[in-house]
Design goal:
This protein is α/β, with parallel strands linked by helices and 267 residues long. It is built from 10 helices and 13 strands. The protein has 2 domains: 128 residues, 3-Layer(aba) Sandwich (D-Maltodextrin-Binding Protein, domain 2), CATH 3.40.190.10; 99 residues, Periplasmic binding protein-like II (D-Maltodextrin-Binding Protein, domain 2, 3-Layer(aba) Sandwich).
Length: 267
């Protein structure tokens, strides 16, 4: 009988112990914002190969528009920033695997991506224009693509736009794909294609460095909104980022960063 009572007492104490452990674990669990602040660092995934948005400067440091936005957001969260250069193909996977806390690398906000990621408010609007040789005055609208060779970077939103939206409406033009935008611009400059479509901010460093004689023409074809990407289930961090972005735009910090990199006023 005494043994039975003793055994019951032991089981009771074990139950209390495990119950207490469960409560401690629950109370000590933290959300991603708390983790970021606790680690005193915001880990940011970006390509590091996409000037003027993000790239390695002469000092071998991550620089660019995205980098400056990330630094300012981290500053307003009260932490340091750590950049994690990542190839674009592995960017979403890296975020989902928690290799970094957020992505700030010109990731366009799309309905498809919003199924698996959360996005901050847009921190930049990128307009896509028709790009032609500087002497070309015959192509100003999408209708002028008929019978022409139009270059575009392979696997981009711009290629999808041409194939799914423009080609069915306009028809009768050839889409020539490239592994990188520079090659398409060189071919455009040499007359091997008639036009391309791209974000003029994104190609400006390539145009200047290679002395290409090309220009944008006509009205913007579409506008893409880029946001800070965050793993789903982290509303606290997302709210803090949105608060930081809003404050940056209110106090003029955002405007200064924008003009620094693009030499025009933000819209």
């Amino acid at each position: 009988m005494k043994k039975l009572i003793l055994l019951s007492g032991i089981l009771f104490l074990v139950g209390i112990l495990f119950s207490g452990c469960g409560k401690d674990q629950s109370s000590s669990s933290s959300n991603l914002l708390q983790e970021v602040k606790g680690n005193d660092v915001l880990k940011v995934g970006l390509m590091g190969t996409y000037p003027p948005y993000n790239f390695l400067n002469d000092k071998n440091e991550i620089d660019g528009f995205d980098a400056d936005i990330a630094k300012e957001v981290a500053k307003r969260l009260g932490v340091k920033v750590e950049f994690v250069p990542t190839e674009w193909a592995g960017m979403i996977g890296g975020l989902q695997a928690a290799k970094f806390d957020v992505v700030i690398s010109q990731m366009t906000i799309t309905d498809e991506r919003k199924q698996t990621l959360d996005f901050s408010n847009s921190y930049i609007t990128n307009a896509v224009n028709i790009i032609v040789d500087e002497k070309n005055n015959s192509i100003n609208t999408l209708a002028d693509f008929k019978g022409k060779k139009i270059g575009v970077a392979l696997g981009t939103n711009d290629e999808t736009f041409l194939r799914n939206e423009v080609l069915p409406k306009i028809g009768n033009f050839e889409i020539v794909t490239y592994n990188d935008p520079l090659t398409s611009l060189i071919d455009l400059n040499a007359g091997r294609i008639d036009a391309t479509i791209n974000n003029i901010f994104a190609i400006k460093p390539l145009v200047d460095k290679n002395n290409l004689k090309i220009k944008k023409t006509g009205e913007a074809l579409k506008q893409d909104q880029a946001g800070v990407a965050v793993r789903k289930g982290n509303p606290e961090l997302l709210e803090a980022i949105n608060t930081a972005l809003t404050a940056m735009k209110t106090d003029g910090t955002y405007r200064n960063i924008f003009v620094k990199w693009f030499d025009v006023e933000p819209e």
